[in-house]
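Thread title: Can someone regenerate the structure for this chain?

I was given the following input by a collaborator and told the matching structure tokens would be attached. They weren't. Posting the sequence so someone can regenerate them.
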Amino acid sequence: MPNLLSKVGGVGAIRAALEVYDDGSLALKSAAGSTLFAVSAAGVVTQSGALTPAAGGTAIINASACATGEADVVIADNLADALTIRNQSTPIFTFRTTNNDERIIMGAGVLMEPVQTIDMADATHALVLGAAATSGQTRLTGNLLMVDPSSGQASEILKLPAPVAGSVYRLTIYNVGGEDIVVQTAAGGTVGAGVTITPGGYAQVATEGTTWGGKAT
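Best answer:
Regenerated them for you:
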């Protein structure tokens, strides 16, 4: 792999070298010979310091041209701290890849369950996934639901979305109104052994992609 170009330059005592090779790779090296920045023949970029984008851009990483499965972020295996996203020095998310103990550790103040407020407006109300909601429906955007039946009757029916094969969902439903909420499946069936949430109470419901289960507290 002959070096086609070796340009050495600098100001005063600061010197660096740019090397270009016949396979299309290149390297920027320090005066001591260590590699500061390199691009391999396959287009793999390596660098010795932190990447600090300048202000004013629209994105620091743009993977919009990638197909499904091509925009992966690969981190090291079997580390207590394989990757941390920080606010200055405060950890927000830490990815642990320790074998048999893989997890994401949330920093203090991270809201783990997005909150959504729902007014049932004195009628049977349905929760939907993905598609835009129509009359009598709410499209789910959170998994901590503050639901008011706003009912003139003793109770109102809240229908869960139809399960999606391979998708796992867990919802916490709080009754913030003055009447009971009866939780049913999308088809009007019973959830678990029956889930009725009294005023001030809540229920946990979940699906593994086939059926819904749950229990009111």
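The chain has three domains: 3-47, 71-110, 115-216.
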